[in-house]
Specification:
The complex is a heterotetramer of chains A (about 240), B (about 425), C (about 160) and D (about 260).
Chain A (H helix, E strand, L loop, with lengths): L1 E12 L2 E12 L3 E5 L6 H9 L6 E6 L2 E2 L10 E4 L11 H12 L4 H10 L15 H13 L5 E5 L7 H16 L3 E5 L3 H7 L2 E6 L2 E7 H8 L4 H13 L1
Parallel strand pairs in A: 3-8, 3-9, 6-7, 7-8
Antiparallel strand pairs in A: 1-2, 1-4, 4-5, 9-10
Chain B lengths: L4 H17 L4 E4 L8 H7 L5 E5 L2 E2 L4 E3 L4 E5 L3 E3 L7 E3 L5 E3 L2 E3 L10 E9 L2 E3 L2 E3 L3 E9 L2 E3 L2 E3 L13 E7 L2 E3 L2 E3 L5 E7 L2 E3 L2 E3 L4 E6 L5 E3 L2 E3 L4 E8 L2 E3 L2 E3 L9 E7 L2 E3 L2 E3 L3 E6 L5 E3 L2 E3 L3 E5 L7 E3 L2 E3 L3 E4 L8 E3 L2 E2 L22 H8 L10 H12 L23
Parallel strand pairs in B: 1-2, 2-5, 3-6, 4-7, 5-8, 6-9, 7-10, 8-11, 9-12, 10-13, 11-14, 12-15, 13-16, 14-17, 15-18, 16-19, 17-20, 18-21, 19-22, 20-23, 21-24, 22-25, 23-26, 24-27, 25-28, 26-29, 27-30, 28-31, 29-32, 30-33, 31-34, 32-35, 33-36, 34-37, 35-38, 36-39
Chain C lengths: L1 H16 L30 E5 L4 E4 L2 H9 L8 E7 L6 E3 L4 E4 L11 E4 L2 H11 L2 E3 L1 H11 L1 H7 L2
The chains are: A alpha/beta (about 240), B mainly beta (about 425), C alpha+beta (about 160), D mainly alpha (about 260).
Chain lengths: ~240, ~425, ~160, ~260
């Protein structure tokens, strides 16, 4: 089933065309990685799906709901921004409760488990302003995962995490996949993408150049690593 | 002041009249008396007669007095004009009106209808009466040597051009004494037009809707020891020379167009030992010449003085300017008057040689008040931050201000003057 | 915001340049003061008003004050848009061109020159019959006030 | 709108923890105490407080709020990834600032003057100060919404603040000076009405003795400023001054790319 379907998405900022008619669909039980150089439009694409950027043209549907028709579709999404900047005087617990309030339920078991996984026990009642960058990122992960959303959207998720937490986080993501959830992520770390992703979308200058499964890509190029496979495809297409 | 001698004259003259007339007949008027009405009594009265009117209410229309009689009320008889008549009209010399309560005169747009009107007469005395709710209260026209003393005048309290005349209105007169009266609720408390060599003394005029005292074309008069408070606009002294204003108190004349004392076209006069307290402007001077303003206290007024530059050769000296919002304002960068030796509470100078006079001049005219005098519309900027900034610049760099009015000898201590 | 500020000067210009109507502004008796003698205007039977072409309004407590104001040169002839005086019987402000004047000591004006104005011929005649005096035109009034108030006008002209 | 209230509560909670906002309250209170110590005349105290209000309130409200608004952009992003609407996020942010800054101002002025709590002029000052806070918060949020670049936004706001608190009155003075042959009461009044700082000042001043110095010969001023009408007019325009920018900002925010 398609959990996210994007059709002919266009977005322009002043005179820069950031998305030039992007279409894609993301299926459940799959981890899709959006790749591409800086300013290729991948963050804008994610923000369009989240409703943070309103597209000029095209439609997006999430779990069958058209995103331009409301905001409640976001109950299906858990989002992990790249650099979380939470209000410094609130505690992680308060934030968790706030989101729980908004979503209408508090996943006690899951929170307890994730707090243990990320070793956040000692930090839950401290103001976020006093936490280290890594801890903040763990809180960020907690907030995205705790409500067990149908769709996880992760923007460079492991960038601020220590190796241990990073691997724990990846475990969590894979677990969600096994439970049939959908994951959409961006990353610059190809190892990570290779480790997690079933499918890659390569964006360049606002268009999707490659949309295929990781295995297929490797097979077609005859390369063993994703990084090289991508490089080869790019070389071919620019030649 | 030599000019005060006339008062002695008037006094002895009226005493003389008193003595020669006093011996003749006395007629009593009351409901049980032979004469039931004042009119009947007047019919039979001879010159110099005394009419003793006993208490009761008399509704007789207009009582016209054409003989030199004394009308004396016993037990405050009431003369009621019923809102239709002029109550008492006197056209004879040497008439005394005393001890009456005169109420409800008629009203008219064309005529000045009064409670007591005296016309073309000499030596009248109107004293110890109460006047209530009259259009005009006491009205003297073309008279000499009259005295209006110790009357209580309560006007109709109606605001509107036709519905209240003046409390004590005197036109074309000489040698008048207006003393110890209380006037409220009229248009002008006391009004003088073409009245000369006269004295206004010890009166209290308050709560009149235009002027407490209004004074036009009335030369060589003195007014002293009066209290003018909370009148619509204040006191206006206009088109007059040689007036002495002494020991009066002008207070609480506060409102958009108010002032304590308006001096309009006043020449060769003296304003001395008065107190101006909480008026929008203590004194407003327009077209005045050779007038001296000395030893007055200006306390907490909006402007202590507004002196327009068409006022020339006046002297402002030895006054105390205490906590006024603006001490002085003028409408020209130069002010051709002598302003010297005053005490200014906002003076921040010093006196190194200890002679009691500040070593640097005081500039009482603020730039903003100067601009406002010329363009009243900027008054919306009062207390604006920009204006405060302007004041600050002015205080630190006095040279940038074009207004050159200064007191070169500001006093370091308050002037102690006595009445 | 910036565009709003830029709008201000032209807005101001429009406000200022909008046509000045030749209508008198109502006088608030007991509150407005006379532009010549500074007295509070109290008597509606004698008041007067002047409007400049630029729209400035000056109010007077008496007809003689209006005449004196003009004679003193405080406003130039060519700047005057219109002048009004109170019609004595109705107390309404009417154009100075439409009235005749009466000087009578029986009709005492606030400033003592005793000039009143009448729109209707019959009112004027009746007043003249009742109160006596002289009938004047506006030119006569200017002359009359000029002679009687020479000193006052001279001083005010400073 | 329960979501709105939840978000508002969270914002207020966060604001409560900002220490230098409390310093704002304390410095207002400190100055009030000082003025009270120097003078016993309530009228003078209120006038001095008015000057402080006109200087401090726009400065602190606008600059704190624009900084706070820029700082909380990424949190707003996070919130918007939750099932809440943009309007809820925007208005809760703005309302929390309105409420909290007004509370700080009112507290700072009222605590030292608690004995004067029945003085109506004090209330006029309080309401003016509160409205002025709200006006500059709305302006700050509007500027913050229009300019994505923080430096540009803050400098524009600085210019706006300088213009409204100081320069505008200079413009009025200049206009009066240049057009002195024209009847200016209406123009000057209109010019004063378009500036919230002037409105706050006039609202307080017309309730005090000094108002008499404003009247002079201007019939229009007398009519407009000399009555309850003038006060209502001033307050109504101030309400417009905070409501319009807020509304405009909400419209822009609705379509804004975050």
């Amino acid at each position: 089933m398609e959990t996210i379907k994007v059709t002919n998405l266009k977005k322009r900022f002043r005179n820069v065309e950031v998305l030039k008619g992007v279409s894609l669909s993301v299926r459940n039980g799959e981890i899709t990685a959006v790749l591409g150089p800086n300013a290729s439009g991948k963050t804008t694409l994610l923000k369009c799906i989240l409703g943070l950027v309103i597209p000029d043209e095209g439609t997006i549907s999430v779990m069958g709901e058209n995103t331009s028709e409301g905001y409640l579709y976001r109950r299906f999404i858990g989002y992990m921004p790249q650099e979380p900047n939470f209000p410094p005087n609130l505690t992680p617990r308060y934030l968790l409760e706030l989101v729980a309030d908004i979503r209408g339920f508090f996943p006690e078991q899951e929170v307890k488990r994730l707090v243990d996984v990320f070793k956040l026990g000692g930090f839950m009642d401290k103001p976020i302003g006093s936490l280290s960058g890594g801890t903040k990122q763990k809180v960020n992960s907690l907030l995205a995962l705790a409500f067990n959303p149908e769709i996880l959207i992760l923007d460079e998720p492991t960038i601020g995490l220590d190796p241990l937490s990073s691997s724990k986080f990846k475990e969590e993501v894979l677990r969600r996949k096994d439970e049939g959830k959908t994951v959409l992520l961006t990353s610059h770390i190809m190892g990570e993408v290779e480790e997690l992703a079933d499918r890659v979308l390569l964006m360049i200058e606002g268009s999707i150049r490659i949309d295929s499964s990781v295995g297929e890509l490797k097979e077609r190029t005859g390369e063993k690593s994703l990084e090289r496979a991508l490089a080869k495809v790019l070389e071919e297409s620019f030649a | 002041m030599e000019r005060e001698n006339w008062k002695g004259w008037a006094l002895s003259l009226s005493l003389l009249v008193w003595c020669t007339a006093g011996v003749s007949q006395t007629i009593e008027v009351c409901s049980e008396c032979e004469y039931k009405t004042i009119k009947e009594a007047l019919e039979v009265a001879g010159g110099g007669a005394s009419l003793l009117v006993h208490s009761g209410t008399y509704r007789e229309g207009t009582i016209l007095v054409t003989k030199s009689v004394k009308l004396i009320g016993k037990g405050k008889p009431v003369l009621d004009g019923e809102g239709k008549y002029e109550v008492l009209k006197i056209r004879a010399n040497n008439v005394l009106v005393e001890g009456f309560e005169i109420i409800n005169s008629g009203r008219s747009e064309l005529e000045d209808i009064a409670g007591i009107k005296v016309e073309d007469s000499e030596n009248c005395v109107i004293r110890n009466n109460t006047l209530k709710n009259n259009f005009w209260a006491i009205y003297l026209a073309n008279v000499r040597n009259c005295r209006v003393e110790n009357n209580r005048i309560l006007g109709p309290f109606k605001v509107g051009e036709a519905y209240s005349g003046n409390g004590i209105h005197i036109w074309q007169a000489k040698g008048v004494l207006v003393k110890d009266n209380y006037i409220t609720g009229h248009r002008d408390g006391i009004y003088f037009e073409f009245v000369q060599d006269s004295v206004i003394e010890g009166n209290v005029s308050e709560g009149n809707w235009r002027y407490g005292l209004h004074f036009m074309f009335s030369h060589r008069d003195i007014y002293r020891n009066n209290l003018f408070r909370k009148n619509g606009v204040g006191v206006a002294v206009m088109y007059t020379k040689e007036v002495v204003m002494r020991n009066n108190r002008f207070e609480l004349n506060w409102g958009g167009t108010s002032y304590g004392l308006l001096l309009k076209a006043i020449n060769d006069s003296l304003v001395e030992h008065n107190v101006f307290y909480k008026n929008t402007a203590g004194i407003l001077m327009d077209e005045c010449q050779r007038t001296t303003i000395r030893e007055n206290d200006f306390v907490e007024n909006g402007w202590a003085m507004r002196v327009w530059a068409n006022s020339m050769d006046n002297t402002i000296t030895r006054n105390n300017f205490l906590s006024n919002t603006f001490d002085l304002s003028t409408n020209s960068s130069k002010n051709p008057n002598r302003i010297e030796g005053n005490y200014w509470s906002s003076y921040r100078g010093y006196d190194l040689n200890g002679d009691g006079v500040g070593d640097i001049p005081y500039r009482p005219v603020k730039l903003f008040s100067y601009i406002m005098e010329n363009n009243p519309a900027v008054s919306v900027l009062i207390k604006s931050f920009f204006v405060e900034l302007l004041n600050l610049i002015e205080d630190t760099l006095p040279a940038v201000v074009p207004v050159s009015v200064e007191d070169r000898k500001p006093l370091m201590e308050k002037v102690e003057w006595r009445r | 915001m910036r565009t709003l500020l830029l709008l201000l000067p032209p807005l101001l210009f429009i406000l200022l340049s909008c046509e000045v109507k030749p209508e008198p502004e109502p006088i608030e008796y007991g509150k407005d003061s006379c532009a010549f003698c500074l007295m509070i205007i109290a008597d509606a039977g004698f008041s007067a008003e002047l409007k400049t072409k630029k729209g400035k309004v000056f109010k007077f407590d008496s007809i003689e004050c209006l005449a004196a104001y003009i004679l003193s040169g405080k406003v130039k002839e060519e700047e005057i848009l219109a002048m009004w005086v109170a019609d004595f019987p109705t107390k309404e402000l009417v154009r100075v061109e439409e009235v005749k004047f009466l000087v009578s000591d029986k009709l005492r004006s606030p400033m003592g020159l005793n000039i009143s104005a009448f729109v209707k011929e019959e009112d004027l005649k009746e007043a003249h019959r009742n109160f006596g005096g002289k009938i004047l035109t506006w030119e006569d009034v200017l002359k009359y006030v000029g002679e009687r108030w020479r000193e006052k006008i001279g001083k005010a002209g400073h | 709108m329960p979501e709105f209230l939840k978000l508002l509560r969270a914002d207020l909670r966060n604001l409560k923890g900002i220490k230098w906002l409390w310093a704002y309250l304390l410095s207002l209170a400190g100055m009030s105490f000082l003025i009270l110590y120097l003078s016993n005349d309530t009228g003078k105290v209120i006038l001095s407080l008015l000057n402080i209000t006109l200087l401090m309130v726009p400065l602190v409200s606008s600059f704190f709020c624009i900084t706070y608004f820029y700082d909380s952009k990424s949190f707003m992003e996070f919130l918007l990834s939750q099932p809440v609407s943009r309007a809820q996020v925007f208005w809760s942010k703005l309302a929390s600032l309105w409420l909290f800054m007004s509370f700080l101002y009112a507290g700072g002025v009222l605590i030292p003057l608690i004995k004067e709590v029945l003085n109506p002029t004090l209330w006029v000052l309080l309401i003016s100060g509160v409205l002025l806070s709200m006006v500059f918060i709305s302006l700050a949020v509007l500027v913050g919404t229009v300019f994505d670049d923080r430096v540009k936004g803050v400098s524009f706001l600085l210019g706006l603040w300088l213009y409204l608190t100081v320069l505008h009155d200079g413009v009025i003075l200049a206009v009066v000076y240049l057009f002195k042959d024209y009847p200016l009461e209406g123009v000057v009044l209109a010019l004063a009405l378009v500036n919230p700082v002037d409105l706050a000042r006039i609202a307080v001043v017309i309730n005090m003795d000094v108002a008499a110095l404003m009247g002079l010969s201007e019939a229009l001023f007398r009519e407009v400023l000399g009555s309850l009408w003038g006060l209502s007019l001033a307050f109504a325009f101030m309400v417009l001054w905070f409501a319009l920018p807020a509304f405009l900002a909400s419209l822009l925010f609705k379509r804004k790319a975050l």
